Amino acid sequence: MPSSSPDQGPRQGSRPLKRPNLQRGIIILPSAFTLGNLFFGLFAMVAAARGDFQWAAWCIVFAAILDMLDGRIARFTRTGSRFGAELDSLVDAISFGVAPAFILYHLFFADQSWAWILSFVYVTAAVVRLARFNVEQGGEAKKSFHGLPSPTAGMILATVYPFFTAPPVAEITGGLPPAQTVGVLIIVVALLMVSHVPYQILPRVGFGSRKARFMTVFLAVSAVTALVIPELFIFPFLAVYTLQGVGRTFVMGLLERLPDSDPLLDLADEDDAGEEHRTLDYRDLTPDRSPPPENDL
After folding, report:
1. Quick one: which of 155, 180, 251, 280 has the fewest CB in 10 Å?
2. pLDDT reported for residue 294
3. How far apart are CA 59 and CA 55, in angstroms?
4. Going by C-beta distance under 8 Å and a sequence separation of 6 or more, which residues neighbour residue 143?
5. Rounded Cα gap, residues 104 and 97, in angstroms
6. What phi and psi values does residue 258 have, to the nearest 5 degrees?
């Protein structure tokens, strides 16, 4: 039987020829978003060094958006790889670890001798959290994150400046919080990153169920609000997300400790199981109240 020549094209029923250039372009696309994340992380530090803390904060937010998109694009195009996961972790360590710590150092702690230790504590927590994420969850959260995600932590710290300097907030709080308050915030955020508090992942949009429709509308409204008034929305929104994770864990922990029923009743039921129940007659144990017999003298 003669073999088909290359000029005849693929035989019927065989796999279609792949397009190597198209496939290579699809593989590069998630990494391009990851490198865009790195670009904004580095430029956030450049802006902070120049004293432009407003633009530095928004650079961290842009980096977080690209960090969210690169993973979704990799899953959508089925081009996720070990290389992409490692690259994403290294970039996140810079954009959401080093960059936010650098911004707050120049904003609050540059004139203090040992306050840079707070930046060290935060960066350490960020890289430990990213390494643990790769080991425990394989670089991808299935149902929830174990600990506060590093992009959320980075955005919380970076958006302190635009939120507290916004005119409506500054009229109430008087401007930026003191350095001591920011130091406590850094430590709390660092501890939450390395904790095992579960944080829900961003749900997928859809209209298949009532819950999906509600979450879709909620995310759409949140996105529009973040675009219209980012300085007033992003920081409190992320703060509420962080606190609800802690509160939800606390409430669920209390509920898990509560017994389903009275433990004493359960114990009594278990002890009585399989035993023969008898009716006891206590009349023989009661004192004899009949008159004493008469003595025959």
Report:
1. 280
2. 53
3. 6
4. 201
5. 11
6. -75, 130
Instruction: Name the band, by pLDDT with cuts 50, 70 and 90, for residue 267.
Output: very low
In this predicted structure, the answer to whether residue 254 has a pLDDT above a threshold of 70 is no
H or E stretch covering 230: helix 230-257
Number of domains in the chain: 1
If DSSP codes are grouped into helix, strand and coil, which group holds residue 4? coil
Would you state the pLDDT for residue 269? 46
Q: How far apart are CA 213 and CA 84, in angstroms?
A: 32
pLDDT band at 135 (very low <50, low <70, confident <90, very high): confident
| 297 falls within a domain | no
**What are the phi and psi torsion angles at 175 (to 5°)?**
110, -150
Q: CATH code at 74?
A: 1.20.120.1760
Residue 235 lies in a domain: no
Average pLDDT over residues 110-126: 93
Nearest to 148 by CA among 63, 227, 211, 241: 241
